[in-house]
Amino acid sequence: MNAPFRFLAARVRLADPGDRPAMARFLAEDPAATAFHRLEWIDAVERATGHRAHLLLAERDGAITAMLPLHAAHSPLFGRALVSTGFAVGGGLIGDAGEATALFDAARELARRLSTPTIELRGGLMPEGTGWHIKQDSHAGFVLPLAADDEAQLLAVPRKQRAEVRKGLGNDLEVRVGRSGADRAMHYAVYAESVRNLGTPVFPKRLFDAVMDLFVADADILTVLHQGKPVASVLSLYHRGAVMPYWGGGVFAARALRANDVMYYALMNHARGRGCDRFDFGRSKTDSGAYHFKRNWGFVPEPLSYATWSADGVPPRDVNPLSPRYRAKIAAWQKLPLPIANRLGPLIATGLA
């Protein structure tokens, strides 16, 4: 996070290591800061993937008034982009809205100097003016308050979905929560198989480890086992009283066992025991299977805002797995033997920041 550039806006600059205490205070005080604005997330992505962090700061009288964190994602397959923030469903500019124009101008200036033709903003204050494309109908977020106890939590689930949870609870399933090497290995094995079955490459394990190491107590893994074998697992983030099941999935056997249903119900109860009062089910693409699955749990979709900017004549990069251009590739990936998919996947997925 060095500061090699001087921007046209005098009050905007790149953060350097000496700014970390001030940035931590700013993020702790700004109500719009998400888990993906945290320095732990910024550092984990940079450490695990090599996508360098560039944190743009606006200041007044020596104090930070607004911040735009960016990762410079690079990939021979997917091109280059400044992303706020890498591998996240949130990010974007936070702080004084009066500083937004200067920070967005600085982001475009930075993109040009880094020969990066695209900027992607996932939430936060949205830019105005020409050159930016805003989407508000492609994804939705899902957040609900947690109930008072286990039984009330189950009763809060709509009837049809509650029946699925009860079926799962009647199976021979064990729930384990932890942060150990064994927990991480089980989670990665399940998650890697899950995304292979969906036809997408798995992220490198070092990204999961970096998030776990840097978030410390604010991240853990809940795994559902059947006859001693992990069948569903989720890595969750904890931020300001909310739990977010972020990287989760299940093997083929999980569906018949209703292991995913048990996993999310168990996570709700576990999070309440940790002092959480909200369950943040993350984002899903509008009208997708995951979107409707979350609605079945009683969550109400809230549209999310995303913004992209591209240099003149350059189309924005396409990393959407539902894009028609990837349909044949996804079908082929689903047929790959798991060891091959796990070896090749991280090489590809690192560029999907």
**Rg result:** 21 Å
Percent of residues in helical segments? 25-40%
Gross CATH architecture of the largest domain:
3-Layer(aba) Sandwich
Which series of helices and strands comes N to C? Answer: EHHEEEEHEEEHHEHHEEEHHEHEEHH
The chain-level mean pLDDT equals 93
Q: Separation of termini? A: 18 Å
Strand content: 25-35%
Compute the number of strand runs. 15
For the record, the count of structural domains works out to 2
SSE class: alpha+beta
Number of helices: 12
CATH class category name of the largest domain:
Alpha Beta
Q: Indicate the low-confidence ranges by residue numbers.
A: none
State the major sheet.
Answer: 8 strands, mixed
In the CATH hierarchy, the third-tier topology of the largest domain is known as: Aminopeptidase
The dominant shape is: globular
How does this model look, in words?
Strands 1, 2, 3, 4, 5, 6, 7 and 15 form an eight-stranded mixed beta sheet that branches. This protein has a seven-stranded mixed beta sheet with strand order 9-10-11-12-13-8-14, with helices on both faces. The chain is built from twelve helices and 15 strands. It has helices spanning about 20-30, 40-50, 100-115, 150-155, 160-170, 180-200, 205-215, 250-255, 260-275, 290-295, 325-335, 340-350, and strands spanning about 10-15, 50-60, 65-75, 80-85, 95, 120, 130-135, 140-145, 175-180, 220-225, 230-240, 240-250, 280-285, 300-305, 305-310. About 45% of the residues are buried. The chain folds into two domains: about 10-135 and about 305-315, Aminopeptidase, CATH 3.40.630.30; about 140-300, Aminopeptidase, CATH 3.40.630. Helix content is about 35%, strand content about 30%. The model has no long low-confidence stretch (mean pLDDT about 95). It is globular, with a radius of gyration of 21 Å. Helix 2 (about 40-50) runs antiparallel to helix 7 (about 205-215) and helix 5 (about 160-170) packs across helix 9 (about 260-275). It is an alpha+beta fold.
